[in-house]
What we know:
- The structure holds two protein chains of two kinds.
- Chain A is mainly beta.
- Chain A has a single domain (3-520), classed as Porin (Beta Barrel).
- Chain A has helices spanning 3-23, 32-46, 445-458; strands at residues 62-73, 83-96, 101-117, 133-136, 140-158, 162-177, 182-199, 204-222, 236-239, 245-246, 253-269, 273-290, 302-320, 325-344, 349-350, 354-369, 374-390, 396-413, 419-437, 461-474, 480-494, 509-520.
- In chain A, the strands form two sheets. Chain A has an 18-stranded antiparallel beta barrel. In chain A, strands 4-9-10 form a three-stranded antiparallel beta sheet, with no helix packed on it.
- In chain A, β14 (325-344) and β15 form a beta hairpin.
- Chain B has helices at residues 2-21, 252-257, 397-400, and strands at 32-39, 53-58, 64-68, 74-80, 83-94, 97-108, 113-119, 121-124, 129-135, 148-153, 159-160, 165-169, 189-197, 206-207, 212-216, 247-248, 277-281, 298-302, 313-315, 326-331, 335-340, 376-379, 381-384, 389-391, 401-404.
- Chain B is mostly beta strands.
- Chain B is globular and about 70 Å long.
- The longest helix of chain B has 20 residues, at 2-21.
- Chain B has three helices and 25 strands.
- At the A-B interface, β12, β13, β14 and β16 of A face α1 of B.
Amino acid sequence: MKLSKYISLALFTLALATSARGQVDSSIxxxxxxxxxxxxxxxxLYSFAPSMLGLxxxxxxxxxxxxxxxxxxxxxxxxSYKERGATEIVTESILSLDGxxxxxxxxxxxxxxxxxxxxxxxxxxxxNLSPYYYIIGAPGDWSFQNYLFEGTASKxxxxxxxxxxxxxxxxxxxxxxxxxYRNEQYNLNIxxxxxxxxxxxxxxxxxxxALFSRxxxxxxxxxxxxxxxxxxxYQVYINTGLGSFIKNAPQTxxxxxxxxxxxxxxxxxxxxxxxxxxALFSLNNENMENKMTSSISELGKELxxxxxxxxxxxxNYRRLLSNNRFVVANLGINYIMGDGSPYNNVSKVYTKNxxxxxxxxxxxxxxxxxxxxxxxxxxxxxxxxxxxxxMHYGQQIDFxxxxxxxxxxxxxxxxxxxAFTFSADGWYSTNLDFFHDPxxxxxxxxxxxxxYSKLSFLSADYMETNAKFVFTRALGVNYCVDIALYGGYAQxxxxxxxxxxxxxxxxxxxxxxxxxxxxxx
Amino acid sequence: xxxxxxxxSLSVLMIALFTLTSCNREEKTYLGxxxxxxxxxxxxxxxxxxxxxxxxxxxADNIVRTEKTNAAGEAIFAQIPVGVYTVNTSVKIxxxxxxxxxxxxxxxxxxxxxxxxxxxxxAIGSDNFIxxxxxxxxxxxxxxxxxxxxxxxxxDKVLYADxxxxxxxxGATGSDANDAVLGLPxxxxxxxxxxxxxxxxxxxxxxxxxxxxxxxxNAINFKEGFNPGNWAGLKIEDYLDLSTADFEMNAxxxxxxxxxxxxxxxxxxxxxxxxxxxxxxxxxxNMTFFRLNDYGPGLVIFRPEQPLDVTNTILSPLSxxxxxxxxxxxxxxxxxxxxxxxxxxxxxxxxxxxxxxDAGFTFLKxxxxxxxSGMSIRRKVAxxxxxxxxxxxxxxxxxxxxxxxxxxxxxx
Lengths: 521, 412
């Protein structure tokens, strides 16, 4: 897509957001904690199905935010960056119109760069746990630009009874490695979600929806400058499992991922108590293909496929304690079960070689009190288990982590001067269980140069803390600005699986610092 | 009512959770076993095949496993991945005599328990000219003009290089995913893209025992063109002085005799270094030049009994109507020595010479991609006598050659 089209779409989103405020009489809520709550409420309870927007019971909102952050440190996955700086602009809006229409729009753009990404020529790893990605020994720096356009329209079809909606999301990750070997990689995604919500009665409503998504990934790998390649750092591989790989990898490939899903939702709203249950069950099918083929090629057009089922569910309970106080308990789970099957161009069949199972459960309880200086308190627990098996080598990993944490938010309003918000949270992550058996892959370069370091990081016990300071000031009646300074710090406490290469050591840390300016209108 | 629904919702979620997490998939692996069974050589009944070290190379990941044979001559490689393997073993009897066991393209299927008989074949060290070194990958500069190869007198007597032929064999190396196997039988003929011979009257170019001759692409002192600003990290020591080469490959006279213009950029003639006599170029045409395969030559030296018939060609099976390619047929019986240099360890199927010429193959880097690497392929030293080195020659380049980071013309 040309830049001009991006700009047009961005302007359209902005226009939508601003026009919303022009038509609707809505006094801005100057409470930062409330605005954060509303955004989170949308993401948790309404974003999974567009027709749910018909039940939106919060005030409409709009904002545009400019954000810069910088991160760096040694406590990291070696295939991720050591240092990253990025500028981001985001605008998001919910707009209610007469006639039962309600819209949601979001535009996001990030531009930044990352340094010292090791053993990774693809930059982003797939969210669906597909094993396919490019590997190169030579570490590299990357620049990237990400775009997101999202729009939702919902319509009340029958007064207070039936709502229909559709969400269209288009996002792209354009990543460019800036040292040889180069990779100009285009990752374009489109997602369409139609749904209907039916209010059975005053208290109960059901939601049904579907999800269609298509993702296209096209890397183009080349060397800009000839360099001595006496070492092995410039070999290019495609990872196909947990030790399995394709060497002399084709340098232009296309990966298409298609996802089909069913969405179900249920809300019980008793006024004081409210329960939301949502679920998404989807099937992913990913095919990686060689773009440079011929009939005499050793590697054919097909390189490999990956299929997975994905189950996501969320249960949310809110109880109003008084006009100003309420409690929200949320439990989200995500389960992915995937199989990777590289293509054998001799026998002309896909052979299953890789299995992955990942289960994540995330629970959180929030207490809100808008009349108190202590406006929010929360505790949270995150359970994470992942198993991978390479059937070719017999290599297997299985690890379970538990992350516990809590936090708070303090608000103080000084009237015309402005309001101050300070939030902080602290976390402790511990490895509950760990298993790794390389079997026949103990000398394999992926085991030696990637897995040991990666597993050492993934199984480490660590602490993490984040803090944010926000100054809010009203700009007239309908506008306010939030100026935020935030940072985070994580440090390894115990290395449970010592890496022979000592990529991660006890005491290693990872820091982040950022600043943002947000106009709310 | 509220509590019931809440309980019901939680129950449904917990059941779903339990169901999902209890789906503990039990997937089998494809690991298998190869038992290499060495068969003793009947000529040498006293040479035991017990307690012999056998190496098994996985051509996909280049992992080399070694096991010693038991009393029955069996080396058992258990719990190994599916793949294509190369087996190598050698028992040295004397300095110039050894028994080799070689097997290539050994395919292990999923969960297969394979017993692989391997015969121990007699390998007699050559008492003749052998190929000592081939520098073909070049460096990033000079467009690989600094390439050469070296022929060594491995005997204990003076040999004459006059009339010695060499050929760069046709066939891909496995460097490109689109490479195709030539698919011609190799037992009687080899198929050459380029052939040349060393001039002389039969006694012009004497080579002493333990000495060698260097045949350069361009017989130039490349150190003279060294500019430290041009190539970061390269030093003058990295550059070769090939002005003292014994011969150089200059195709211009050959091409002009065919009515073509040569390529004066690649063929820079040093008049003080004699040219080899070009006999055949499959791609002879304007601006072409004589060279060895950039990604790994199949290089043979040979002495035909009669003058080579340069019309005895074969149309390549990989030709297309728009691009017919004719390769010169070289009788295997004339071949003195050969080294099959392929792109990587899994390229065995691209072998361009019969096992009688080279039982194995070699490569610069196990995973390939050695173009412009500056690396060279060199034969190992088997023995050092008081007056000369004796180079390893078991007729198997997998054993006999090694990759080195910088070329060493006339040296080690």
